Amino acid sequence: MDLRRVGGRIAAVRRALTAAALPLPMRITNGLAMVSLVLSSCDLLRLCSDRERPLRFPLGGREFATVVCQLASVVYLLSLFAHPEAPASDEGDGSGRAPAAAEPAPMPGGMEDGDEETVAAVVSGTLPSHHLESLLGDCRRAARLRREALRRVTGRGVEGLPFEGMDYQAILGQCCEMPVGYVQLPVGVAGPLLLDGHEYHVPMATTEGCLVASVNRGCRAIAASGGAMSVLLRDSMSRAPAVKLPSAKRAAELKEFVEAPPNFELLAAVFNRSSRFARLQDIHCALAGRNLYMRFTCITGDAMGMNMVSKGVENILGWLRNDFPDMDVISVSGNYCSDKKTAAVNWIEGRGKSVVCEAIIKGEVVHSILKTTVEKLVELNVIKNLAGSAIAGALGGFNAHASNIVTALFIATGQDPAQNVESSQCITMLETVNDGDDLHISVTMPSIEVGTIGGGTCLASQAACLNLLGVKGSIHGSPGANAKRLATIVAGSVLAGELSLLAALASGQLVKSHMKYNRSSKDAAKAAS
Ligand code: ADP
Fold first, then answer.
1. Residue by residue, what is the 3-state secondary structure of 55-78?
2. d(CA 328, CA 521)
3. Using CA positions, which residue lies closest to atom 2 of ligand 1?
4. Is the CB–ligand 1 distance for residue 277 below 6 Å?
5. Rounded to an integer, what is the distance from CA 514 to the centroid of its chain?
6. Which atom of ligand 1 is nearest to the CA of 301?
7. Tens digits of pLDDT across the chain (529 residues)
8. Which one from 349, 416, 422, 438 is the annotated catalytic residue?
9. How far apart are the CA of 305 and the centre of ligand 1, in A?
């Protein structure tokens, strides 16, 4: 017989008994059970040894009550040993643990030798959870035991969070600390996107109904019009440390030194030691009082490049101390970089890849696929994306929904989704061409931060999406080519998304299509239950 099942049944009985005893606190319930056990045992012994009144069936009222008390207290106390970690009542047990919502399912795969002791040590706090991987030398087992410890500490199950199917070794030291599972996200494919003469099937990880369908429609309109073209204007990742000097005068001297053209080769040689792919391109400084912010920009091959550029900056800061020993390094990142924050510096100077993507959409395609007119689209773009965003005080937000497409593509291909902040900066322009018959549409995106090596790109599912696009890893002898191509695919997909959403708005189809794809009766029923 499965002991865990027996334990579960006993626990269920105990919950029923405890529920009957509520609203008494758990400590009092336990005490009452002990007292009941002792008293009923004494009474039973006395009844058994009483020759004048031997125990006989059917039992009399008092005998029956004694036997019921005995059985109830034994079952209750046994269940305490079977599941000592599960709080029995919603009041908590005074330990500060969260109340149990339901009896959580036990650990996937069951327990192996030594697991019980390890989990108990994590639960008690004597073994820090983040030491599990190094202690066990087995990342999957570490994640499994951490998950079990979490179940015991919180009293809540995480059965809906999948465990199997993730390579826990692959994420160690690279993607995520203290894993207990992973989140499922559906991946849809839009396309083919006809861009620069190539067809791309664009993977998008999203839970927003309508999004993939909309981008798909945009791709159809682009392909039916002969395709889109892209141009990459700039490729430069940046990092800007903040340093403090004794005076603003001294900070200005350092600025002059690092920006002086004759010193560039020296500084580049020091910076480039960080990696065979890092090549310093530019240094641009800003002052705030006696604090100096030095914005270093460099190419980083096929890596998104944050680690690479940060290492290069550390090399430079160490080297600068020789000539500026009074320089105090406040932070290797001083926010003038600017990473994962809305900032004009990225919008104006660019960060990562700066791309423009354009297409001419035929008037007949605007009618047949997009169900609107060229004039309506152009007017809508001026009033919404340009004027509307201007009065909203937008900073790089002159578009309809670039971040929708950027984020879905970023998640699918293992990019850092937090960088959607600056990567989604985009101005969408629409004009009539060919005597007003056709539509010229473009997206200009100065800060697309992507890589095809490093970070989350190494994980199996993300690598599969990169592979689908033909940009996984790097091309031998052409470092950076895949990452640049990925940036143009991001811009091309945004172009398709902008076209389709603007058309939906112009034709008044937006709400109708969202009701169709985004609010199924199934969802509503699920949400209500
Ligand atoms: P990031 O700098 O984007 O955070 P990593 O720190 O993982 O990414 O750096 C990328 C690593 O991959 C570096 O160690 C680099 O030497 C290596 N690498 C191998 N091939 C390439 C390539 N084609 N482009 C960039 N980096 C590469």
1. CCCCCCHHHHHHHHHHHHHHHHHH
2. 61
3. 305
4. yes
5. 25
6. 24
7. 344 444 445 444 454 454 444 445 556 667 787 888 888 887 778 777 776 666 666 677 777 787 787 888 777 777 665 544 433 333 333 343 444 444 556 666 678 889 999 999 999 999 999 999 999 999 999 999 999 999 999 999 899 999 999 999 999 999 999 999 999 999 999 999 999 999 999 999 999 999 999 999 999 999 999 999 999 999 999 999 999 999 999 999 999 999 999 999 999 999 999 999 999 999 999 999 999 999 999 999 999 999 999 999 999 999 999 999 999 999 999 999 999 999 999 999 999 999 999 999 999 999 999 999 999 999 999 999 999 999 999 999 999 999 999 999 999 999 999 999 999 999 999 999 999 999 999 999 999 999 999 999 999 999 999 999 999 999 999 999 999 999 999 999 999 999 999 999 999 977 777 677 766 656 555 544 4
8. 416
9. 7
Domains detected in the chain: 1-85 (no CATH), 87-184 (1.10.3270.10), 187-234+352-517 (3.90.770.10), 241-331 (3.30.70.420)
- The DSSP H or E segment spanning 190 is strand 187-195
3-class DSSP state for residue 432?
strand
Annotated catalytic residue 208:
yes
In terms of Cβ atoms closer than 10 Å to its own Cβ (0-12, 13-18, 19+), residue 330 is middle
- Is residue 305 in contact with ligand 1, taking CB distance under 6 Å? yes
- Residue 198 is among the residues annotated as catalytic for this protein: no
